[in-house]
């Protein structure tokens, strides 16, 4: 039997038939508020303040505020609690402990000058931009909607000979045949209707009950090299070159139990890994002693990514058994969105701070998928429909952050903040799936935005040591569908509980 013997051909062809539009793109484009304990304690509202390691990732001009060199490190305990509501509500908890931020700042002051460049500062920083840690399960109501109908519609136009394994023919090697159709056929979930048409194995009026489980893991990390200058204690200018590493994994299981007996389970393993880079430029102006205004721009982040995927069907129809796909791979380029931030902060009696930030992420205008061999700045045909999907359903995301800090005395400070992030996509979004896709994961999540609340405190000794502690809460809401259909979407609400501890030393 020749199954998988031509698998290397499948790998070479897969990059043109594996992407899935706005949902894959927005998964990596959206990055939550994350950083040091002081930064998180004010919900990230630091764009016009600077002098804080976590703020350099937003506005590199904040590096110019430093008057001392500093080493800082932040650890974080993340506890996501996910509630999935479909027919029933189910809750699952996770835990993750990690290094969230590490930075080293070298400050070179020019004490002989009163105007001009008074300080040149250099910084290296590591930031955990995003955690993908989350798991949840869903149970839907019995319905006339069935993925077997979706599979049949997806397979219409193909003949039984296109799907049937023989000694001379391996359907997984046919670049025109979707792997989902092969799984459905071999699992006897779809039946031929004549004239290259297909229908579900379910009888007319027969209902099925859906179940879904998912476990996500991974991260996006950033390594930043920054420079900033202090010009006459009035203007601060900065720039960063950043490199990002991305690692994501999803293990999902979709099950249907048929009203008249029988069932199937479709399991998918999906992963993405890769490397990206971008530039950030920023400025902070101090027009008066009590006011600061800041602005920054982040160029699009240019990633080179590799996807890996494998599907398996375990079925109990007229017979019992299982069938699985080969290991699929796809290499491609992904451009994460251009971002712009504007900030304003007020210093009150040298003891209080009120800060407001606004950030815009141009998800619709600059997010793109590209073939790995294409020109970096041009769309190419393999991803034309995916990019059209992004233009139709992605949305400009707006983030508003408000934070405050009060210095009780020279040693102790307390702080708090809140933030709102608007949805990155339309709630009308549907998953675009090429008819010859080698992906078998048909589910998708529609982002409905996030809200934040945070509080913390800090201690600074006269010897340069500092300790900051913060609790930051984030609530993210998604709508879930297992495949394109009229089925009522589930609501997935994730509560991210972040507990942060930062240690720093100024010298």
Strand line-up across the major sheet: 1-3-4-8-9-10-11-15-16-18-19-20-21-22
**Structural class from helices and strands?**
mainly beta
Task: Characterize the largest beta sheet: strand count, sense, and whether it forms a barrel.
Answer: 14 strands, antiparallel, barrel
Distance between the termini: 70 Å
Describe the oligomeric state of these chains in a short phrase.
single chain
Range of strand content: over 45%
| SS summary, helix count | 8
Question: SSE string, helix = H, strand = E?
Answer: HHHEEEEEHHHEEEEEEEEEEEHEHEEEEE
- Shape summary: elongated
Helix percent reads: 10-25%
Q: Radius of gyration over alpha carbons?
A: 26 Å
Parts with pLDDT < 50 across at least 5 consecutive residues: 1-16
Q: How many beta strands in the DSSP annotation?
A: 22
Query: For the residues shown, what is the average pLDDT?
Result: 92
